[in-house]
Amino acid sequence: MGDGMLEVADLVSGYGPVRVLHGLSISVDQGATVAVLGPNGAGKSTLLKTIIGLIPSQTGEIKFEGRPIEKLPPEAVLEQGIALVPEGRRVFARLTVLENLRMGAYREREATVIQQRLDYVYHLFPRLDERNRQLAGTLSGGGGQQQLAIARALMSRPKMLLLDEPSLGLAPVIVDVVIDLIKNLKSDGLTILLVEQNIHQALAISDRAYVMANGSIRLDGDAAELRATGLDLERAYLGDSE
Length: 242
What we know:
about 40% helix; Rossmann fold; 10 helices
């Protein structure tokens, strides 16, 4: 394996007897933003759920900062410093914005530390500060809830953030807000693994990209180079899904 912050090698996983990932390998360097692209059904979300421990790996290795994590439960992976923003946002609709954020720091007992983290996410998301007593379910289905889902993940102060389709179902103007946020997190030094269907938006903010199809990596390389070779990218992207 390489010496990236996250190293996934020869990973096989799926749901029961159904294999979704077939010997997949990726590497994410510290401070980098890496995109995983591919059509619906390629296995992108399964990859993130396996890294975070929601789906057990069958074979292969997952190492974070040199330590194997493939056998750890999700709460232990979170303690290692990896947080997931799931597809579809999944905020706690009947809790307030503030209560949702506190859930993100549920393992932290120091009130001063929790307040520091709240100050940090409110700086990133002023709108959440203004609406911190509002029920999460009454926030706008796209922008507001997506911002809350990202902020909740950041409350654990992760070393690496996994983002599963953050632009899915959002209006273009809100997508731009989310993309700008990812850029800000990147400039703060956060390591990001980004799963996206929006090829061009993802490549524009990433350092490196992997293109998946049918549970395997079909193409990978420097994001800027992949943008420049659009035809090869489209072929790899659409190859087996037509």
